[in-house]
Amino acid sequence: MIRKLLSRMMELEGYEVLQATDFSSGLKLLKQHLPQVILCDVFLPDGNGVDMVPEIKKIHAECEVILLTAHGNIPDGVQAIKNGAFDYITKGDDHNKIIPIISRAMQQAKKNQGKIAVPASYSFESIQGNSPSVQQAVSLAQKVARTDVTVLLTGETGTGKEVFAQAIHRASLREKGEFVAINCSAFGKDLLESELFGYKAGSFTGAIKDKKGLFEVADRGTLFLDEIGEMAFELQAKLLRVLETGEYIKIGDTKPTQVNVRIISATNRDPKKEIEKGNFREDLYYRLSVFQIHLPPLRERKEDIELLTTVFLNQLSAKLNKTVTGMTPEFLATLKNAEWKGNIRELRNTIERSVIVCDKQLTLQDLPLELQNVTMESDGKNVSDFELATIERRHIAKVLQYTNGNKTEASRLLKIGLTTLYRKIEEYKINL
């Protein structure tokens, strides 16, 4: 009853109001519409509002949360504010107070727009995903973080291996030390050797002064070796030496340099297959993989796509200083049915592109053409799949994709006039 009364009061004040009976249904509305202010009861059928504020902020950081309770107490109020709530008020405290508080919260939410940046450092809290495979990977990473053993992260490109490496470092006893990352596939053998181990002045042409290697920079910290499977076979022996003895010899030096570095490595290849092919040292593999964690591809954790999309939408709309009110069910369904060969990185890039081109809410037309042509399925075919307009729109989009956006060539292949093609592009809102 009070929910309907408050909703009516806010509507009369000119606010657009969405209602939910419990937290789980409210969470669905939050992901789809990204409201500026949430008025939430403390005692909900499926949880406590005070505890839920951080979860709301995790999904939509710019949103302001006002908690409402019938039995206010000081500890709950203090905890609510600590958790990030805008205010904590008691029912019957008088309805005259609620509208002004909502107004102030709305003003603050507008100020937040574009000011909440993506975190520069990573932690386990920044890893998004509720699927069992991701939760298992996080659990393993948290357990190994406080030790000093080497960790090997495996998984396809774009699954978040560096995010996990950063999180392990932040939760380790070395967190005050440097986290240094290098992609082994980006350098040839000689250049990678000088980057990792450094050199002495005069050791080769152009070496006019001593250079610290990344091992030295990461001393008492963590060195992340990404795409370790791409490292030259000859250089692997020198890396093995560091792992076994904690020392190495710089290029052009005669005495060893001692370092205390934790190694986290990553690869998108199958290490055992690379060993069989003779591309990777078996002894180095066993030194690097004392603790191995596999990160699942996005196609095996599709239940996380909605959460990831909402988080990226929140982050990128802030970064691009653009107000986006959420996404349509058709948009989300298409994302869930895509293959995502580039995994999380590809999904994030797609959302960024969609945020740039959208008007107010993310729709199917804001996706790249190749994704717009993905057949949507739920319990069966989507009803719109059988509509002539939908079929025509998809065919036109496919032809335009084939011609790389050349409308004259597309109209020739479609056997329609160029003016007709332009009209249909406008009518169907086809983004090129």
TrEMBL record:
One annotated GO biological process: phosphorelay signal transduction system
Coiled-coil positions: none
One of the record's GO molecular function terms: sequence-specific DNA binding
Residues of the Sigma-54 factor interaction domain: 127-356
Pfam families: AAA_lid_14, HTH_8, Response_reg, Sigma54_activat
SMART domains to which the protein is assigned, alphabetical: AAA (SM00382), REC (SM00448)
Sites bearing 4-aspartylphosphate, chain numbering: 41
PROSITE patterns named among the record's database cross-references: RESPONSE_REGULATORY, SIGMA54_INTERACT_1, SIGMA54_INTERACT_4
Stretches assigned to the Response regulatory domain: 1-106
Alphabetical UniProt keywords: ATP-binding, Nucleotide-binding, Phosphoprotein, Transcription, Transcription regulation
SUPFAM superfamilies named among the record's database cross-references: CheY-like, Homeodomain-like, P-loop containing nucleoside triphosphate hydrolases
Full protein name: Response regulator
Species in which this protein is naturally found: Bacteroides reticulotermitis JCM 10512
Lineage of origin: Bacteria, Pseudomonadati, Bacteroidota, Bacteroidia, Bacteroidales
